[in-house]
Design a protein that fits this description.
- The chain is an alpha+beta fold.
- The protein has one domain: 4-Layer Sandwich (Double-stranded beta-helix), CATH 3.60.160.
- 17% of the residues lie in helices and 41% in strands.
- It is built from five helices and 19 strands.
- The protein has a six-stranded antiparallel sheet.
- Strand 1 and strand 2 form a beta hairpin.
Length: 265
């Protein structure tokens, strides 16, 4: 028997997606503060301390510990619950915070547990637990891009992640190894071993431009990969925003802008 609320959903859009969650009477969805987009009448909002899982059975200390885990992964101390208090079906929609894709996960299909990057969680059925996953290996924690702590989703209901750029779902078979940029990992299921490997080679290290380390994923399970890590996008925007082009008023500067594409905008 399922322990989490059962919800139906539809995903709309291409580059800036949103997910519409359909709730039966007394069904509840939980979401990060700021993810809410719109909702029908007869849906009641409630702020929860922590992730909302097993709220009725937990002591205050348990709720405090649960909320503290969320702070460690960079999430908000509180979450918002949206409950259908009407008689018929009602819908509530949540939007992704930056261009990319929304990933629907039926946790029951993935062993009731998925590990994902920090800030990837968007919303879920009530009862899904959002906790922390410590990386046990020193090298993984120091050089893995995500640090020692990642996010962990547990339960048997629907959960939704968001990632930047296009998202690829890849299935690894036993004995298969995938090497990937550390920032491109969105999440992976049980049975996947996550480690960090040094690129190696003096030319690769100095001139490669791809960083000194990449992630190695081994084992049997599913991996979700994003084409554009949000850190890479933010770094590129910051570089352009903080660079002043002193030659903009000169003839040579104008020619240079045309050659590099800026003159055609």
């Amino acid at each position: 028997m399922l322990q989490n609320h059962e919800i139906d959903y539809r995903i709309f859009g291409e580059e800036m997606q949103y997910v519409e969650v359909e709730l039966d009477p007394n069904e509840t969805a939980i979401a990060e503060p700021g993810a809410f987009m719109m909702m029908d009448d007869n849906i009641q909002m409630e702020t929860l301390f922590g992730d909302g899982s097993q709220q009725q059975n937990s002591s205050f200390l348990g709720k405090l510990l649960n909320a503290g885990k969320r702070v460690l992964v960079g999430e908000n101390l509180f979450m918002t619950a949206f409950t259908n208090v009407g008689n018929g079906k009602r819908s509530v929609s949540f939007a992704s915070p930056y261009p990319g894709k929304i990933i629907p996960l039926d946790l029951a299909r993935y062993g009731n547990r998925v590990v994902c990057q920090k800030d990837a969680f968007l919303c879920a059925a009530k009862g899904v637990s959002i906790g922390i996953e410590f990386q046990r290996k020193l090298g993984t924690g120091l050089f893995g891009g995500e640090g020692f702590i990642m996010e962990k989703l547990e339960g048997d209901g629907m959960a939704f992640l968001h990632a930047c750029g296009h998202v690829i779902e890849k299935r690894l078979i036993p004995g298969e190894t995938l090497r990937i940029d550390t920032g491109c990992i969105v999440g992976f299921t049980n049975g996947i071993d996550y480690d960090i490997q040094f690129v190696g080679g003096i030319k690769n290290t100095i001139f490669g431009g791809e960083g000194l380390f990449f992630a190695t994923l081994r084992g049997s399970g599913t991996v979700w990969i994003q084409t554009l890590p949000i850190s890479r996008l933010a770094g590129r925007i910051l570089r352009y925003a903080t660079t002043s082009r002193k030659e903009e008023g000169s003839i040579l500067g104008g020619i240079g802008n045309i050659l590099d594409g800026d003159g055609w905008r």
